[in-house]
Structures are given as C-alpha cells and as structure tokens.
Amino acid sequence: MKRILILSLFVAVVSGCSPLKDANHSSSVTASGTIQKLGMTTFQYGTHLLKADNKTYALKSGSINLDTYLDKKVTIKGKKVAGYPVDGGPELIDVTLVKF
Questions:
Q1: E strands within the chain?
Q2: What pLDDT digit, counting tens, does each position of 51-97 carry?
Q3: Is 57 within 8 Å of 91 (Cβ atoms)?
Q4: Per-residue model confidence (pLDDT) at position 24
Q5: Phi-psi region of 87 (alpha: psi -120 to 50; beta: other; left: phi over 0)
Q6: Which of these, 23, 49, 65, 93, is most buried using a 10 Å CB contact count?
C-alpha cells in the first residue's frame, strides 16, 4: 500500500512538471526582419513591429531601446508574452537581445 502511494505521488509530480518545462522552452523566440515603429493598428499592444519575411511580431522591451534599430535588418531574441495575440494582432515578444 505504501509503495502504491509513493509511486502515485512520483507519477503526479513528474506529470505536473513536464508541461511547465515545455511551456518555458516554447516561449523563446528568435526572428529576423526589419524593426518599425508601431503606428496606428487595430491592436493596442507593443511599441514596435518586426516585419519578418512571412510574419509580423509586436515588440516591447524594458531593457533595450528599440528606436536604435528602426528600419534596420536585425535578429531579435526574446520571450512570447502570455495572453497574446489578441484582437487579431500579432504575437507580442518581450525582446532581450538584438543583433545586426
């Protein structure tokens, strides 16, 4: 009986931790494109856009001045912000690194 209880607790802990690990891993984003200032949009989030070849991302950053990279071809790294996209807009990325 004790073995069944310990085995059940082990399975519960392992099952509960695996999705968290996968969720954190899948929230990282690396994308290349041109950074543009966010103008009039149908969605109300982000400060800039990254126009990639076939996708657009809304960007924000608390540590990097994205205006420095306006109209330049860059590669960004960051994390997807939970709860986005909304209102038919693009995914929101919190940018942590920008490379030329």
A1: 28-37, 48-51, 56-60, 73-80, 91-99
A2: 998 999 999 999 999 999 999 999 999 999 999 999 899 999 999 99
A3: yes
A4: 45
A5: left
A6: 93
Single-letter amino acid code for the residue at 71? D
Domain range list for the chain: 28-99
CA-wise closest residue to 66 among 31, 28, 96: 96
Q: How far apart are the C-alpha atoms of 94 and 75, rounded to whole Å?
A: 13
Pick the CATH number of 28-99 from 1.10.3470, 1.10.20, 2.40.50, 2.60.40: 2.40.50
Phi/psi zone of residue 77: left (φ > 0), alpha (ψ -120 to 50 degrees), beta?
beta
**Alpha-carbon dihedral sign for residues 10, 15, 17, 21:** positive
